[in-house]
Amino acid sequence: MKKIRNFCIIAHIDHGKSTLADRLLDFTGSVTEREKQDQLLDSMDLERERGITIKSHAIQMEYEYQGEKYILNLIDTPGHVDFSYEVSRSIAACEGALLVVDAAQSIQAQTISNLYLALENDLEIIPVLNKVDLPSANPEEVTDDIVDLLGCKPEEVIPASAKTGIGIEAILTAIIERVPAPEGNVDEPLQALVFDSVYNPFRGVETYFRIKNGEIKKGQKIKFVATGKDYYADEIGTLKLTQFPKATISTGDVGYLITGIKDAREVKVGDTITDATKPTQNPIEGFEDVKPMVFAGIYPVDTEDFEELRSSMEKLQLNDASLVFTPESSAALGFGFRCGFLGMLHMEIIQERLEREFNMTVITTVPNVSYHAYTTRDRETAFIVNNPSDLPDPSTVDRVEEPYIKATIITKSDFVGNVMSLCIEKRGQITNQTYLTTERVELTFDMPLAEIVFDFYDRLKTVSKGYASFDYTPIGMRTSKLVRVDILLNAQPVDALSALVHFDNAHTIGKKMCEKLKELIPRQQFDIPIQAAIGSKIISRETIKALRKDVTAKCYGGDISRKRKLLEKQKKGKKRMRQVGNVEIPQQAFMAVLKLND
Ligand SMILES: Nc1nc2c(ncn2[C@@H]2O[C@H](COP(=O)(O)OP(=O)(O)OP(=O)(O)O)[C@@H](O)[C@H]2O)c(=O)[nH]1
């Protein structure tokens, strides 16, 4: 156990976390030439394409130092706030962290939020000044910033380049010398933390764990504490680029477990694995059930594909436990599902996976948060509203509550004014302002979650010229003056376009929605009035004028291939249209409310 080191890499996005991980694997000879591929740890196609780490993974390296063989377990962490619970679990499985800071960009918001998480878990922090090869690098100044932040000595900061290989050996030495060996007692009952799980269509759910106490043996009967279920450990092993089955995994080490579980929901990140016959009395603390934060409708473009969509969603759920869905129907869109996601990125990922892996063409409706409505008949019992069209008749509504968050934003002092006006526009109330250094300011706000769901990230990036990082935690429900704005096309209400908004913004949003829809809905053979309404009161109106001439006419007599191309294009465009009454609505229109400020 003395020869094991468990560590993670934490960094602000794009500071070089994945590149550094690749370089460490390379240097320790943990990958063969054939396996070499950029960003090895990001094994999902989607991850590689987007250049972000979606799911955390673990990998074991062996390294000889001063004649002794060491096992270094690198636990990778996802970088997006939607998956922050997974970051916190990965961090809890380590004793040390490499804090990677870009030598040109210095400390950024996520550097700090991840650092706090690591410090809360008592991790040994090894600061790495990455990208020193860049001409724009500013090593002295950034080292000073790091020293200020951590209170460490300047010589503890390791200058490195994940690109050219500078400093990699020094990093490995620091991991061995500075990160403590795991503690724990092999004779105590098994106590292992689940920090990740991955679904494999052939083998079922693979659970990644870190043993705090005791040991796990192949064939042993084990128990998941949170779900209370027992299983047999059919296979256990350690993780390199491929899996290495083992007979025993002991205290301090990291490994994988296969039990034949076929449903991802049965394995929860943060749960404790213990022995079924001699269970531990102290499950590892801090387990929480992750709850969906954002809801949206997903409908098949072709109504006949509903059953196929259901089976695709069920399969997706088997490997993504954080996805929830219930069937719903919409007058405009027919049968579909109301789905719950961890955040906007998660929603995009699910939508893309449905299309890529299951070949489904779907229409997604405007995302919304989950509201609590209380009626005048029963002022005590909350009616959960996950879809704006489920809001009870306004005349019977006593009050509506919406989820609030505590938002933490770190930015440069120059942008404090901009960030504050943005947050206030988004109905935020400032609760604290702290200067971390003379240049960096931490602001905290109480804000409605619904305001973050829309264009908040993009706006924050713009007003701070990219220099603001953002994190949030839910702080419960609060009463708000919310109304439902309905949209009517050709005098017919389109339920999928309804949104719950704050009363003070309702008129502006209604007006912008009408204008945006006018842009997005193609002109047709007749005039189409677009109206926004609160209850029976129309608050805004636009008209899409009828087409006057045949657009394909100009192709007449032209090159046939050009015409075919045009028709092909039209067919493709059609795929994502939805006929509502006699109006064809394209997919973008259902998301119009997200783009009101473009
Ligand atoms: N010049 C230089 N570029 C680097 C170095 N390390 C990483 N990069 C580049 O910086 C960019 C971001 O690197 P990544 O490793 O993807 O960053 P990351 O922190 O893993 O990003 P996320 O996974 O999105 O959080 C890539 O284009 C890398 O090629 C370095 O030491 N020097």
UniProtKB/TrEMBL annotation:
Q: Which domain of life is it from?
A: Bacteria
**Could you tell me where this protein is found in the cell?**
Cell membrane
| Signal peptide stretch | none
Its record classes its membrane topology as: Peripheral membrane protein
Q: Which residues bind GTP?
A: 14-19, 130-133
The UniProt function text for this chain reads: Required for accurate and efficient protein synthesis under certain stress conditions. May act as a fidelity factor of the translation reaction, by catalyzing a one-codon backward translocation of tRNAs on improperly translocated ribosomes. Back-translocation proceeds from a post-translocation (POST) complex to a pre-translocation (PRE) complex, thus giving elongation factor G a second chance to translocate the tRNAs correctly. Binds to ribosomes in a GTP-dependent manner.
Q: What is this protein called?
A: Elongation factor 4
**Gene name, please?**
lepA
